[in-house]
Structure formats: C-alpha cells, structure tokens
Write a structure and sequence with these properties.
Blueprint: H1 6-17, H2 20-26, H3 45-62, E1 70-74, H4 80-88, E2 93-98, H5 101-110, E3 118-123, E4 136-141, H6 151-161, E5 162-175, H7 195-198, H8 207-217, E6 220-226, H9 228-231, H10 233-242, H11 247-260, E7 264-272
Parallel strand pairs: 1-2, 1-4, 2-3, 4-5
Antiparallel strand pairs: 5-7, 6-7
Length: 276
C-alpha cells in the first residue's frame, strides 16, 4: 500500500483555498515540466503549466497513442494525462487509477469524456491493478513509480493487463552508475530531506535494473530517453514557489544539484509486450 503523500496534502489544501499559483501550476498535472529550450523558461505559473503539459505530450508521443486504444493511466493524480488525451484524440477508452479518493474526486470533476471517448477513474493499488488480463493497449505511469512499494509487482500487473504488442510507458528519476551505490535502498530513507515533504521514494532503479525487471515479467525495454536537461527549470520554479529554506525547498535544491551534475537523470522509458 502506498503511503500518504505530504505534497498532496499541501496541494489539496491550497487548491481548496483557491491559491491561483497552485491552481495554475498543479491543478491539472502534478509532475515535472519539459522545456524544449530551458533557457527560455519564464519562471511563472503559466509557463510551468505549459511545460507540465508538454511533459505529458512527450510521454504520450512515446506511447504512440492512436484512436481505438484502451489506455490505463496508473497513479493518475488529478487526471491531467487523461484530460490531455481526451482533448486531443477520439475513440479512446481512458481509465485512471489512483490509491487516493481525494485525487480521484478532483479528476472526476475536471475530466468529462468528449464525444467518442470513454473516461473512468478507479480507486485501487498500482501494485495490485484491478484490470482484466490483456485488456489494455497502453499502460502509462507519469512520474509515480518511485512511490510504489513494489516496482516488480507493478510491472507484473502492467504486463498482465497489456495486450500483445502493447506498451508500458513511464517517467522516472534514474541514478547514474556512479551515484546508484549511494542511493538509500529503502523507500523511507531520507534523500536530501526530500522524503519529509514528498513521501516515501525509491530512486535506486538504474536503466540496467529496468531492463532486467522488464525481462523478468515478459516485457522488453525499447526506449530509454534521458530528458534531464529539459526539466532543469522545474527545480528553480519549485524553490521559488516553496521557499528555499523549508524542508521541501532544501530537498528540491538537493535534487537540482544531482540533476545538474548528471548524478540523477529524468528519463522516459517504454517497454513493449511481445506479440508472440
């Protein structure tokens, strides 16, 4: 069972207060941003919202979304990825899964199916997915797998849910070969005080680890795209928003240092289920 995440306590509280910066930045997507040219980042809420949407577009492009597909968005948060797909495609069956009802409540309010699409949101555990075998063409997991208590259980569930030829596409923070031995193994271990605000995390899985994990569950790693450079403005924005001296600000600052030095990358990964 995933732990309660402190940053969602903060976001839900601020959204209830009508905080305009939080509403703009995180009312739809709750993940890092993507800037094609990081030097052009403006550092305001609207710019961050555009970058967060672009991150979703990058991941969905990797997933090769097409009309007629059934797509599972695991760890769907406030439904931003489902909303983006619902707005840009027709003929999709979109299902979001989250372990927290309060996130799903907002998702259901924010995302209504457009003509030709189906949209549903489900309460459930990513490590015990409540979906039938071979029922999905794509499984997405945007910046959430590091919270899952058992990555292998999640991968087993994704492989089971996918139809032959289907794709699992996710984004994750991936340590370099040099940094990996120094990453705490447990989800509750403190990483630069990051966990105190962002909850239990496991940032220890390398690209080689992902390849081996995929093989164990019958998937094949087909793409590993390091986009760290395109995410760097995220850290500055979050520090400005949260304050540099608080626990959250210091945790983000530490992660920024790791990202800028190449010790902790931000990577998009795609895994295919073989047809035969």
């Amino acid at each position: 069972m995933q732990d309660r995440l402190p940053y969602f306590d903060f976001l839900v509280s601020e959204l209830a207060k009508g905080n305009p910066a939080i509403e703009t930045s995180f009312g739809r997507h709750v993940h890092w941003g993507y800037w094609e040219n990081p030097a052009e980042a403006k550092g305001d809420a609207a710019d961050y919202a555009r970058a967060a949407e672009q991150m979703t577009l990058e991941l969905c492009a990797l997933a090769e979304i097409a009309p007629g597909q059934r797509i599972l968005d695991i760890g769907c948060g406030f439904g931003g990825t489902v909303a983006s797909l619902n707005e840009r495609f027709t003929g999709l069956d979109l299902a979001g899964l989250n372990i927290e009802e309060r996130q799903l409540d907002r998702a259901r309010e924010q995302v209504l199916p457009r003509p030709g699409n189906q949209v549903s949101f489900h309460l459930g555990d990513a490590c015990a997915m409540p979906f039938e075998a071979a029922s999905a063409d794509r499984v997405l997991a945007v910046e959430c797998v590091f919270h899952f208590p058992d990555r292998e259980a999640f991968f087993h569930g994704a492989a089971r849910a996918l139809r032959p030829g289907g794709l699992l596409v996710l984004s994750d923070f991936v340590p370099s070969v040099l940094f990996r031995p120094f990453v705490p193994a447990g989800r509750q271990a403190t990483i630069g005080r990051f966990n105190a605000s962002f909850g239990g995390v496991n940032l220890k899985t390398s690209i080689a680890g992902y390849r081996a994990l995929a093989q164990r569950v019958g998937l094949e790693l087909v793409v590993a795209r390091d986009i760290t450079r395109h995410t760097i403005p995220t850290y500055q924005y979050l520090q400005n928003l949260l304050g540099r001296r608080g626990i959250a600000g210091r945790g983000v600052g530490f992660m920024r240092l790791l990202a800028r030095t190449g010790l902790l990358g931000y990577t998009l990964l795609a895994f295919r289920k073989p047809i035969a």
